[in-house]
Amino acid sequence: MTAKDKIHDAVRNALVKDGWIITHDPLTIRYKGARVFVDLGAEQIIGAERKDEKIAVKIKSFVGPSVMQDLEGAVGQYVIYLSFLEQVEPERKLYIAISHPLSISAFQNEAVQMLVRRNHIALVVVDVVSEEVVQWMPI
Amino acid sequence: MTAKDKIHDAVRNALVKDGWIITHDPLTIRYKGARVFVDLGAEQIIGAERKDEKIAVKIKSFVGPSVMQDLEGAVGQYVIYLSFLEQVEPERKLYIAISHPLSISAFQNEAVQMLVRRNHIALVVVDVVSEEVVQWMPI
User: What ipTM does this complex have?
Assistant: First the structure.
C-alpha cells in the first residue's frame, strides 16, 4: 500500500468515526461533458453525508518533491472543483483534507494562510495515525 | 531553443510590438518571504508597462501531455499569483498569455470558459508565428 493510499484510507476511516456516511469514493463531478476533470491530480475525492450535510473531501497528501508545487496543485484543484460544484451541486461543501502532522507545517506558513483565507479554502485536518478528525476549518 | 522558450520569446516580442516596455523578465513577486512562489510552474512571468498601465503576464504554453493538467496548473498559478499581487502591487493586472492557435482550442471548451469567467481570469491571446497580440481579454 502506497503512502497515498494509506492517507486516503485514514481520511475515509476518520470521516466514518466522525459520524459521516461515505456515499461516493470516488465522487465524480460532471459539468457539460467535462467529466475528465475528475482525473485531475493523483488523489480522488470522497463524497460523504451526515444528516442534512453533504461534503466532498479532496485529499492532499503532499508527498511530492516540492510543497509549493503540491500547494499549487491543491489550490488549482480546489478552485476548479469548487467552480463545478457550485454549478451542479451547490449544497455540497468542498474540503481539502490535510494530514496531521505530515502536511500541517505547510499550512502554518503565513503566505499559505493568506492564500487559504483569500480563496475561501475549507480544510479538514486528519490524524493519519489515530485515523481521527483533528479539526474542521470551514470557510 | 525549446518550444517553451519560443513561446516565451514570441509573447515578449508581441508585447513590445503592442507598445509595452518589458520591465521584468522574470517578474519576481515577494510576499512575507514567500519568494519561493516564483518558482511555481515551468514558465516565468513577464512584467511590462505602457503609460500608466502595469501588467504581469504568465505564459502557459500547454505543451504538457494533458491539457487538463496544464489547465489545473494554470488556474492554480493564476489564483496564487493574483492573491499575492493583490497584496503587494494591486495596480498591476495579471494576465495568462495563451498561444494562437496552439492553446486556443482548450479555451473554447464550455467548461473551461465557465472556469475563466467564474475565477476572473484575464487572458491575452498571442499569435506565436507572427508574434503579435491577437486579443486582450481582460476580466
Answer: 0.79
